[in-house]
């Protein structure tokens, strides 16, 4: 299992220090919430569904990452057993997904849910099942994937929602794990290399270069980035029905703050170090790129906020010009903060792209926007103060950009 050892060292560090750090954080999180006495009534199927879906989603993103395809290219160039590398590859990434991502969510649910031992063990089986499910589905040919995935998903969903107890769910997960393991033993390791790495190069020719068009093509050509934005749009449709049940204060701004959490498009610079080095090396490109990047995120946030406002009007009503102005301010301010944070403090030392999307830094901008939302909810006149501050902020950036362009021409 030298291949598994090499992959694990790439993912967890030379001395596997990330395993200890991640497990320690999970244990601290569990005992902190458990000792605080926080208890929430959660149905068992929610626990099983969360463990399965979250682990499967993270595993799919991890094995489809472009970063690890380049890192482990050498493994596919050396002689290896047909099944040995596949199992080493899948099990290493499954361990990485469980330890660094899924255990945090499970620790949170275990601490506040008041589960028994059987339910906790079943949830762990669901998480393992989710990882192997994602790997098995990822390796299937397109012609066979969707029918089998539909049947497999229906069986897992039936077990989650209809299982009378933890024992039945545990048996269903065990059967699913065995099936996935058998399929993976018959899978060639090159399936992961070809599916996650090769892509036809398309050249676009135009008279002028546009950073905005480049970012738009980058978004549409990366499935994970596009799916996250689509999922956020879907969440924007549901959020008014959730916040509409909270009476007593204006909670619409809270939705704008939550919807600013579009992590993938806010980490484009961190995710492409080569492009970042080129931008920092070329004179005059920093301000030009950041301006277009800010406009790109602003358009994405405005689209999501627009969907949120339409659904809010349909569910709760009361959307006027003040609410439209608030949506624009939230979209613009969050885009400015995201670009500034990404340019001044890009993320380093990440292993796969999912590390970027689940880094704690992703919560900084939404946290600031949530504070602003709280102020606006309590003091509606603060919208006009914020508008004045935003005009000064944008004018300052425009003045700085024009000054640099004039100095460059001189």
Any key phrases for this structure?
single chain; 410 residues; mainly alpha; 78% helix; 0% strand
Plain-language structure description:
- The radius of gyration is 24 Å and the shape is globular.
- The protein is mostly helical and 410 residues long.
- It folds into two domains: 2-197, no CATH class; 211-409, no CATH class.
- The protein contains 20 helices and no strands.
Task: Briefly characterize the structure.
This protein is an all-alpha fold and 410 residues long. It has helices at residues 2-12, 17-36, 44-63, 66-71, 73-77, 84-113, 117-139, 142-162, 166-185, 190-197, 211-221, 223-243, 252-258, 268-271, 273-281, 285-315, 321-344, 353-357, 364-378, 382-409. It has two domains: 2-197, no CATH class; 211-409, no CATH class.
